[in-house]
Amino acid sequence: MRSLRLRFPDSGGEARQAGYAVMMLGIIVLAGVLYQFQVAMNEVAYWDLRIASMDRRIERKTSPEVFSGPERPEMKREVRKANAVMSELDLPWGALFDSIEYASSHDVALLSIQPDASSRKMRIGGEAKNIPAMLEFVGALEREPALKDAHLLKYEIKRDDPHRPVTFFVSASWA
Fold this sequence. Notes:
Keywords: Membrane, Transmembrane, Transmembrane helix. By secondary structure, the protein is an alpha+beta fold. It is built from four helices and four strands; from the N terminus they run αααββαββ.
C-alpha cells in the first residue's frame, strides 16, 4: 500500500489573519456595547437626580408649616375654608367627568354641574330634546360605576320654544 501524502496549500497564515480580523471585530463591537452601556447609565443617573430633586421640592411644598403664635378665631376660620377648598380639589374629577360624558348623548346638552364635597353629591343641570332622551340620560348616569343614586329632581318643558326642549336637574352621588 502506498502512503498518502497530503499537501495543504496554506501554512496557516491566511487562517491566522482571518482569526485576527474576527477578534478585532469582536473588540470593536464590545467597545460599542460598553459605550452604549455607559451612556445608558449616565442617563439613569441623570433621571435619578431629577426625580430626587423633584421629590425634595414636593416635600418642601407639602411639609406643614407649624404656626407657633396664639390661635385666633379668624385663623381657625381660614383653616376651615382651606380644608373645604382642599376637599373640593380632592374630588375624583376625572372619573366624574368621564361618567357624565359617557352617559350624555347628542340629544342632551349639559348646562351646569354643581358638586357638594361634604355630602358627596352633585347636581347636574341640562336640556334634552325630549322626555325620553332626558330619561335615558338619567338611566345612563345610574348605570355608571362612578355614580350612584342618580334621580331626576325636576324638569320643565319649554312651551315658548317651537322645539319644546326639556330643561331638567338631576342629583347623583359618587362612589
